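Hi there,

I know you've been waiting on this one. I reran it after we fixed the sequence typo, so this is the corrected version. Both the input and the resulting structure follow.
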Amino acid sequence: MRAPPFEGEVRFGVPYDIIGSFVPAILRAFAKAQPRVRVSLVCEDSRVVREQLTSGGVDLALTTETDCGRHGETLRTDRLVWVGASGGDAHLKDPLPVSLGAPTCLFRPVAIEALGAARRDWRAVCEVSRLEPVYAVLEAGLAVAPLLRSSVPTRFDVFEGRAGREARLPPLPEFRINLYMPPAAGPAARDLADHVRASFSGRPAQILNN
């Protein structure tokens, strides 16, 4: 017999670009281990999530960044890639139609810089970070978008390597998936952090007993 050791609430900040790829499995495992803890999910761009962690708006945060800041740990490194509709031709058009994130999205300046360095003309088609409108634009064949390789749905094409060169799409850098937790985080937040680490490492989370 094992009583749930914690109860209360943990506010978990996650960016739009990885919430669908990683978070459901994390929340499912945590809810099973800690049924008395309520997780409030805060979904914003990584820059906003970091700000909310500093201000106390969230207790724990995942981010996608090119580096890792104070009180952070890198769980995985992934490459940013160009993505478009399967069989579409948006990647061949001039100027290149691009779905960019909101001004706070960290993918946005990286993609713009890469296109500028490659001297590729482009125009913005969609400038939001939420993935539903981004996916809609991609599926319609109206644009390409920069996304993390591991988060790309199978229904889309990824332009990298030879395909990227033929489409004149510049290579994009690697990003880190980081976990941030303040030193003063409570026990429930620390346990959720263990579940996040376990999900990325593929190992079971440590069971905590009373």
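Quick highlight: The first strand starts at residue 8 and ends at 14.

Best,
R. S.
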